Amino acid sequence: MGTKTLLIGLDGATFTILDSLTAQHGEEEVTMPFLASLYRKGSRGILRSTPNPLTPPAWVSLMTGYSPGHHGIYDFIRSEEADNDIFFTLYDARDCRVETIWSLASRAGQRIVALNFPFTAPPPDDINGVMIPGFIPWRHLRNNTTPKDLYDRLRQDLPDFNPRELAWDFELEKKAVTELSATEREDWIRYHLPRERLWFSIAKYLMETEQPDLMAVMFDGVDKIQHQAWHFLDPTVQETDRDEYYHRMRSLCLEYFRNLDGYIQELVTAAGPDAQVFLVSDHGFTTTYEVVRINTYLHEKGYLKWKEMPDTEAAKRREESMFANLDWSGTTAYCSTPSSNGITIRVARNPGDPGVPEQEYERFREQLIEDLRELRDPATGERIITGIHKREEVFSGPAMADAPDLLLVLRDFGFVSIKNKKPVVQPREEVAGTHHPEGILIACGRGIRENETVAPCDIVDAGALLLYSLGLKVPRNMEGRVPENLFTDSQLQDHPVCLGDPTVLEKKETGADKMSEDEKERLLEQLKMLGYME
């Protein structure tokens, strides 16, 4: 029995770029001809991301069929106040409060392979198949890979297997913090070429040796390249100075996507004609053109107070660190991380505690919303923050208490800055790529409509879709629903969508090792480079 379902994750992929790369431009060779053929053979549509279109909540929603208010993953890191300071902890798989499709399918007797998905470390111990997590340092790959003998099998059977290349190489990347030089940016693109090839080689090897029912692999270079090389890819960004460097960078980016197209073709071919194939992204991408320093604005409006710092090098380093110094005695609202795009209101739970008294919370929040609405472009009067969502509006569920009180959407969809700098709003010296709430869904294969564009669906629907594709019942308490408009009438008649027993996650301690403080620090440096941290 071959693969029933092939899932190819393209982190951050957007139709804005893919449609350009699958089209003919003059006499230029089409960059992704195989993807163009999938468009014709199958269906496509927008896959709406999580309210904050960010890698951790979005991929976890896709892997579980639940929104962040239920699974509890909101960001790369969780921030907690204690002793008049703020502390950060990296999320991992143990923080997820609901069951993943990997476990659901395994328990139903399906054999799975899941490669490079974030927040799958440490892996659950009920996996029937193979799991190699993404987003961890290379030293932890062996202990977080299941089954335990897989790591040595890969070293033995794949001549090009290199765990340093497979995982994020912090030694290579730590030089690049927030802004790359021209040479560093070029190296950054080149770095992802062999890395994606290795993930592809492992995927192909495991399809042949494991013959999984569900084969899933995620290519994350799409997101990381688009962050740093957006203006070499976006056809709507007009370059006024297309010099030799521009053309070299453009050519490198196209080489990446041309290779990716070849990997997709080989995986789809290996899956066979009876498989159903799904290409998805966790969010889309667009252009960010300005910096919005939200904590500076909160300071100007009287919600946040900066701590007076001595004029020392140590103090300056602290100001440049991930989170600047706050005077907690005078702070009632703040943003803890750029990637959260959220504002936390400090609530006094007990008499004498710092923050807003509970009985004044609603009035305080309404006033804060009004003040945020008044942040406007002085030249046009346009609102800088176009969306302000209360957490119960977008994060309802048993994990809502961990969400920020307000979620902000900027007019260019960028991430906020939390640094103590002025002005509040400043144009970027160079446009960059940032996340957009509209990701992609492409489907083809047995029982899927051909050459159709379907109505947008939500990222939580992907989990239900994959279970249905495997022939399994969808848990009736899962938020996601199968987008039936992808399928032909005969497919739905022969294989109707069925709901099954609800899922309940049983928390178990795993024996996987934890990251050291040094490794956590390096991971945070990586996030800085991608613009999620400062």
TrEMBL record:
SUPFAM superfamilies cross-referenced by the UniProt entry: Alkaline phosphatase-like
Q: Which residues cross the membrane?
A: none
Gene3D superfamilies xref list: Alkaline Phosphatase, subunit A
Q: What are the recorded GO MF terms, alphabetically?
A: hydrolase activity
The highest taxon in the source lineage is Bacteria
User: How is this protein named in the record?
Assistant: Nucleotide pyrophosphatase
